Amino acid sequence: MSDTTLWAELLAYGTGIGLSPIHIAVLLLLLLGPQPLKRGGWFVAGWVVTTMAASALLVTVGHSLVLDMTQGSHHRTGLDLLAGGALIAVGGRELLRSFTEGDTPPAWTASVDRFVNMPLPLLLLLGAVAEIASPDDLVLFAKSAGVVLAAQLPTWQELIGLLAFTIGASLLLITPLIAVAVGREKVVPVLERGKEILFARGELLVAAVSIGIGSYLGWQGISGLTLT
């Protein structure tokens, strides 16, 4: 695998994790509420730390288990097929939900206001738990760790790879935070509109990304079967 392909994969898997409607919605509401930079900044920092720590832990565990993640290996092929199937299932579920619920706001939107009004330490804790407990996120965390292990990089390059993954997972949260820091009044209408779109079409966004990445991983797994 070339360096370009490695970084592109890690950024893509990170972006899949970053497309978390609940976390993005919570951040938008924090940025629209009181003390936006303080509360929003801590929320984004918690997301970044959780992402980096979880991915680094999986890579460390992978090294200790001496997993073979080269293309066509049993570990790699099994992970690709499992991850691909799981993501396609998640995407299909979200797609069906978007059609059956129509214009009704997703069920998770009812809990977003409660999250935003929680004390900041509890909000950060629940945000971290929600990120690492999500089944589709766990799949992408495992796959990103597998990609890093397969590349057999020196430790310093592994850290750069995990940083690339973390950046991909955090861009959709960091960008609105920076926009608010530069000029909150100017971006408030954009944040409001983004929140409306997210509440109305969040499932379609998650479905498209999940099915796209899941199909790619499924293709990788099938290709791996031909090499075994």
How would you briefly describe this protein structure?
By secondary structure, the protein is mostly helical. The protein has helices at residues 3-18, 21-32, 36-65, 74-101, 109-116, 120-133, 135-151, 155-225.
Helix/strand layout:
Elements: H1 3-18, H2 21-32, H3 36-65, H4 74-101, H5 109-116, H6 120-133, H7 135-151, H8 155-225
Helix pairs in contact: 1-7, 1-8, 2-3, 2-5, 2-8, 3-6, 3-7, 3-8, 4-7, 4-8, 7-8
Question: How would you portray this structure in words?
Answer:
The relative contact order is 0.23. The chain has helices at 3-18, 21-32, 36-65, 74-101, 109-116, 120-133, 135-151, 155-225. The chain has 228 residues and is mainly α. The chain starts with a helix and ends with a helix.
Number of strands: 0
Any low-confidence stretches, pLDDT <50, length ≥5?
none
- Helix fraction? over 70%
DSSP summary: helix tally: 8
How would you describe the shape? globular
Percent of sequence in beta strands: under 5%
Rg, alpha carbons? 18 Å
Labels describing this entry:
228 residues; mainly alpha
